Amino acid sequence: MNKRRQISLAGTAFTVMVLATACDGSPSAKDQGYDTRPAANSSEAGKGYGSGSGSADGYGGGKGADGMGAAGGKLAVRRTADLGQVVTDDKGFTLYRFDKDTAKPPSSHCDGDCAKAWPPVPAGSASASTGIAASALGEVVRADGSRQLTLGGWPVYRYVKDTAPGDTKGQGVGGTWNALAPDGKKASGKTDEGKQPAAPVSVSDSAGLGRILVDGQGRTLYRFNKDSAWPMKFACTDACLDTWKPAKPVDKSKVRDIPGKLVSTVTRPDGTEQLAVDCWPVYWFTGDSKAGDVNGQGKQGLWFAVDDKGKKVTTMPAP
């Protein structure tokens, strides 16, 4: 009996050693991670993330009384796997520019059938947010006398075939249409400095919460107080996973603005793998409809964003 107990204790000690090794930043098969970012122009990128509300006959291609597209609202910056930073409207729909337009001086050359496929965003209907300079917003008078929003001098449009937030189906159409970068330039798969592609995990400056971690789509990453890092425990299961989606593992060598040693991969009870930060499993919230949203912060007093040191953020966003 004693011998069996000694064997059991030895096995437990070995398990503890393995788990500690996997979470202390040292290499292991799992914490090398995987880069599983969805394609930027895939509707899968929007599933469970505020998708399903747009349509070519509804929001995406909607026209106002003056023939313009829907209001832009508070613009946002979203990170994509293929295009880097792109600008979206307040519903998460990608905004575009047209090579046949000009920025200096601003001039729009998309009218008639073109404007039916590419609804212009009306001037005065949009405001800047984190990552977009208010001074970059302007307007241009179109041929019909209506006023269109400009960004960096370039007239701003949506694309009717983008039917879900996160879609970028307009990118490259006709070799003349491109998603907008925050400075009005063409989104190109590079950061503002033009050096690196979008990272699968990076840091975003949140007006209410400070520097927080986001995934490759710009979604805020959260941790759950009922989970634990040591010993490893997953309390978000079953119905909980309908609202809080486990973040996919990533290649830790490609994360940006945080130490790679904080990033690891953990195995859930159902055998699937999940991204962990500082050994805590992290999730994204289906109630966040666009990049930059922090609607999950403080939910039930149990869910919190994660800062660039891997710690939970307890500050609450301003109302």
Automatic annotation (TrEMBL):
Residues 47-57 have a biased composition (Gly residues). InterPro entries: Lipoprotein_repeat (IPR005297), SCO0930-like (IPR047910). Residues 1-22 form the signal peptide. The keyword Signal applies. The keyword Cytoplasm does not apply. Residues 183-195 have a biased composition (Basic and acidic residues). Pfam families: Lipoprotein_15 (PF03640). Keywords: Lipoprotein, Signal. Residues 26-57, 170-203 are annotated as: Disordered. NCBIfam families: SCO0930_lipo (NF040526). This is SCO0930 family lipoprotein. It comes from Streptomyces blastmyceticus.
